[in-house]
Amino acid sequence: MLQPRIPVNPLPTGAPNPLNHPAPAPAVDVEPTTHAPAPVVPARTTVQLTPGSALALAAGGGAVVLVVGTVLVSMLLAVAITGVSVAVIAVVLRLLVRDMQKGR
User: Fold this and answer.
1) Closest Cα partner for 85 from 93, 95, 96?
2) Cβ distance 33 to 41 under 8 Å?
3) Which residues contact 11 (CB under 8 A, 6 or more apart)?
């Protein structure tokens, strides 16, 4: 009942059927025809880096790194200042609430 049943394949899937041999096609004389030549695609130009262009590329990359770093540091500074100001406001509000509860 629990034994697997494996289907039996008489011929492997990749083997040709030996009973059906294709007949060879009869030889036909074909005259060569001339076709229009295919359009020639121009080769891609390669980018050549001269020392001046490599220096400019390095300077541009350095400038990008400096600008992105400046933006990230300024955002971090803005978050830090906001956190400090919220902490100061919380202390002031706590003192005000405590003074109101004492009845002053």
Assistant:
1) 93
2) no
3) 17
Rounded Cα gap, residues 59 and 53, in angstroms = 10
The 3-state DSSP composition of the chain as helix, strand, coil percent (nearest 5) reads 50, 0, 50
**pTM reported for the whole predicted model:** 0.45
Rg (CA), the chain: 41
Residues 28-69 have pLDDT tens digits of 776 767 777 777 777 777 778 888 999 999 999 999 999 999
CA distance 21 to 90: 93
CA-to-CA distance for 58 and 99, rounded, in angstroms? 62
8 A C-beta contact, residue 75 and residue 67: no
CA distances from 76 to 18, 63, 66, 72, 91 (A): 77, 20, 15, 6, 23
